[in-house]
Amino acid sequence: MIGRTLTDIRAELEGLAEPSGEYYVQCGRTGERPVPVDGRRFPDRETAVQAVRVAHAYRATLRRYDPRAPWYDFVVCEADASPGGDRTWGFPPTAASESPSQRALVAYCHDLAGAVFEALSTSDHGGVERAVMDEYLAAAERTPDRDRLCLQLLATMATELQSRLPEPARADALQRASAHLPAVEGSARPVRAALAHLRSVGLIDGFTLADGHWDRPRAVTVRGYELRSREERLPTLPLSAETVRRTAGRPRVATTATPVDDGWRIRLSPAGPTAGSLDTATPVDG
Question: Where does the record place the DUF7551 domain (predicted)?
Fold first, then answer.
């Protein structure tokens, strides 16, 4: 992929936004305010016009990763000029009452998928990139719930990376993907920090330590995980990616996933040739 990433474009838009601004951007046909202009205000009309250009660039980049992403005819509106000026929307289109956590989840899925696509394209894994998209489009045809399409993209990506790349290449892809995501500080307890982040974006409801200590956890229990198991594997790409980007040395990675009453019990071990491989889709045990 050539050009700016979704993260780059989102950062540019955030630089234009002002919480107390009197202008906003919406689709002139539908009245929707999709990612990346959802909930954002701008200080004046000129800045809002710049935001329209940035929003078009974001949506064009998004369609490289998700060709099903809808088109919008963006226009600038003054907040006081419309009774619906304060409504917020996400992609896929949702009700105005949709929670901010759902919008955060959609944005996170797109950011992580985009970062991995960028990593694949810069490491000569174009065939894997095409396979991910082909499988995703096929799976999307079988997904009636549009709110789950971004989750379907992550699940498909996790499965295809697992089946098509050897462990060293998967590890390299996740390290490269980190460069296309917002910077985070390293952590002495990277698994806990990773899970906390996944909870903050709504990908999981909660987590607990099941075995070991947080500095060297051997198992964790995850509740309310939005990604579903497929082909006897649980997509663990988000946990792997978030742990890798917070670990300076060998990360602790998922080795097996066991269904329990309140979610999944995920066993962990250090990544490497003599321990756990860096799976993006972890075998389901039981």
Answer: 105-275
- Dihedral sign (CA 249, 245, 196, 156): negative
Q: With respect to residue 1, please indicate whether it lies within any of the assigned structural domains.
A: no
Q: List per-block mean pLDDT (blocks of 10 residues) for the chain, which spans 286 residues.
A: 73 93 88 87 92 87 76 83 39 42 81 87 79 76 72 91 93 90 90 97 96 96 96 96 92 95 94 81 92
Please report whether residue 81 resides in a domain.
yes
Domain boundary among the residues 32, 63, 98 is at 98
Which of 67, 98, 129 is where one domain is finished?
98
Q: Could you tell me the pTM of the whole model? A: 0.74
